[in-house]
């Protein structure tokens, strides 16, 4: 029962922790999705804002008859007064230069930039015009690296410019390396807005006003005002592939759930990938729940164990009391039986003693000795709690008075054989009579007399005891009267033992052979074992 309670409580605790972790994971995924949406919106908003600035600049440049460095910078400054281009590298003008006007363009640019400007790379024969970087605001040494670069010569830029011209609206390029980056070679992109002449129907492309962007700075500008948490961000151009990676930001060693969002950056498809950290450990709430739950489970286990142990002890106590009651009933019945047998033996002894007695003194003397023999054997049986009693113990008790005198030789030999209580009483009475007879007439009546008592097993259920006297007065068979002792042994003892007694009066002394039953200890030791069993076993 305690184990079952522990398992059930542990199961409930495990389900609770799993539910908390599942809820935390769903909340985490929702936060991840919300963050991806916020960053996507921020990126699109910044790109659209830049495209709007380019539209406005394009509208102003359309009104200019001639676009020079000074009026370009003035117009950009007026329009962009107090306006920041987050993540941008400024605003540039790229003029359309036909092949036959390249020399004049380079000559004019020499007045704008000391040292002159040359269009590079060289215009291929199959292309009628170039679109070089003409002006780039702010005018810095970094931005001047890009002056003169023919952007129409590079496929990613050319594709965006053609799309912008055809749609007459801003268009973003794919992943490029900005010329002003130099050796840094950081990925970037450009947004182009075409500028046309005002005349119609001969409306022609004059060039492009554009905004270059460092992709990493552009991503950082969006994350600066949005909660990025501990997520990782990767920005890809058109498709997720290592070679299309524009920018990334590491918030942590994230290798958990991923959310991807497609976004449109001024006509160009980008993909934002947001990855959360993979939590290898339980959340704080789960840990608190687990620890408190384990404490409660352990307390339940202890309480259940105590209650179960108390119930087991109560059942054992009831069982022990029932056993004791049964033992008392059995002992009462057995005691009644023993008392009846003892009284029957006493009555038989009294009757035989009275029949053989010639006067009151001889009657009292004979009765006293035999009752004492019964009492000695009773004491022996009481010490063994009326269990099995060894043959040697019964014989030693009855011969003890003669062994203490030191004038006789007593020799007892035999294996360990135990008798039932009734058989021990009968044997004790027989040995008493043989010893009394030997003390009056036989080997125990003279100094130096010898009595040898030996026993051995005949089978698993029978044992034989032999009494042999020697060294006493010679026995004359014809003159030996059959007294009370002889009659007691041959009648009462033989009847109680259930086997005949062989009593012989030889010349050298009395010899007696008794056959006694050997019973299984379980027949009479149950009481002793139960009495010795402690409470709770």
UniProtKB/TrEMBL annotation:
One of the record's GO molecular function terms: ATP binding
Residue ranges occupied by any CHASE domain in the UniProt entry: 63-223
A Gene Ontology term for the protein's cellular component: membrane
GO biological process: signal transduction
EC number, UniProt record: 2.7.13.3
Keywords: ATP-binding, Kinase, Membrane, Nucleotide-binding, Phosphoprotein, Transferase, Transmembrane, Transmembrane helix
PROSITE patterns listed in its UniProt record: CHASE
Domain of life assignment: Bacteria
Pfam families (alphabetical): CHASE (PF03924), HWE_HK (PF07536)
Main location: membrane
Substrates-to-products reaction catalysed: ATP + protein L-histidine = ADP + protein N-phospho-L-histidine
Localisation per UniProt entry: Membrane
Protein name: histidine kinase
Source organism of the structure: Caenibius tardaugens NBRC 16725
The organism's taxonomic lineage, starting at the top: Bacteria, Pseudomonadati, Pseudomonadota, Alphaproteobacteria, Sphingomonadales
């Amino acid at each position: 029962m305690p184990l079952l309670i522990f398992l059930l409580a542990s199961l409930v605790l495990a389900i609770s922790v799993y539910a908390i972790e599942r809820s935390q994971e769903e909340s985490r995924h929702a936060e991840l999705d919300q963050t991806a949406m916020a960053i996507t919106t921020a990126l699109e908003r910044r790109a659209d804002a830049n495209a709007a600035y380019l539209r406005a600049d394009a509208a102003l440049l359309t009104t200019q008859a001639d676009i020079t460095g000074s009026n370009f910078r003035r117009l950009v400054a007026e329009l962009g007064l107090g306006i920041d281009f987050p993540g941008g590298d400024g605003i540039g003008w790229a003029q359309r230069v036909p092949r036959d006007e390249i020399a004049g363009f380079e000559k004019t640019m020499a007045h704008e930039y000391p040292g002159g400007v040359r269009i590079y790379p060289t215009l291929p024969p199959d292309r009628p015009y170039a679109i070089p970087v003409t002006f780039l605001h702010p005018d810095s040494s970094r931005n001047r690296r890009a002056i003169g670069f023919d952007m129409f010569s590079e496929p990613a830029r050319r594709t965006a410019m053609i799309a912008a011209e055809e749609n007459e609206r801003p268009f973003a390029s794919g992943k490029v390396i900005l010329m002003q980056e130099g050796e840094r070679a950081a990925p970037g992109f450009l947004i182009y807005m075409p500028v046309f002449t005002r005349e119609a129907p001969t409306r022609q492309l004059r060039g492009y006003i554009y905004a270059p962007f460092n992709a990493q700075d552009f991503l950082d500008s969006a994350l600066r005002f949005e909660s990025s948490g501990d997520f990782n961000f990767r920005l890809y151009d058109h498709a997720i592939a290592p070679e299309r990676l524009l920018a990334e930001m590491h918030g942590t060693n994230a290798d958990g759930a991923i959310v991807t969002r497609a976004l449109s950056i001024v006509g160009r498809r980008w993909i934002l990938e947001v990855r959360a950290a993979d939590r290898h450990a339980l959340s704080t709430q789960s840990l608190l729940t687990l620890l408190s739950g384990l404490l409660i489970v352990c307390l339940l286990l202890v309480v259940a164990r105590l209650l179960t142990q108390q119930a087991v002890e109560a059942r054992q106590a009831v069982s022990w009391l029932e056993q004791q009651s049964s033992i008392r009933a059995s002992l009462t019945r057995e005691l009644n039986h023993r008392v009846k047998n003892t009284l029957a033996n006493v009555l038989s002894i009294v009757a035989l003693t009275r029949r053989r007695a010639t006067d009151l003194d001889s009657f009292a003397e004979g009765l006293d000795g035999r009752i004492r023999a019964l009492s000695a054997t009773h004491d022996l049986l009481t010490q063994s709690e009326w269990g099995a009693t060894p043959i040697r113990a019964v014989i030693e008790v009855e011969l003890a008075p003669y062994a203490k005198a030191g004038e006789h030789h007593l020799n007892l030999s035999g294996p360990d054989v135990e008798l039932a209580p009734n058989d021990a009483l009968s044997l004790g009475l027989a040995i008493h009579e043989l010893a009394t007879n030997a003390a009056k007439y036989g080997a125990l009546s003279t100094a130096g007399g010898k009595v040898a008592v030996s026993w051995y097993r005949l089978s698993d259920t029978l044992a034989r005891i032999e009494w042999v006297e020697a060294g006493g007065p010679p026995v004359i068979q014809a003159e030996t009267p059959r007294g009370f002792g002889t009659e007691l042994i041959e009648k009462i003892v033989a009847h109680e033992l259930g086997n005949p007694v062989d009593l012989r009066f030889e010349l050298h002394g009395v010899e007696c052979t008794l056959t006694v039953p050997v019973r299984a200890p379980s027949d009479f030791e149950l009481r002793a074992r139960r009495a010795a069993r402690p409470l709770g076993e």
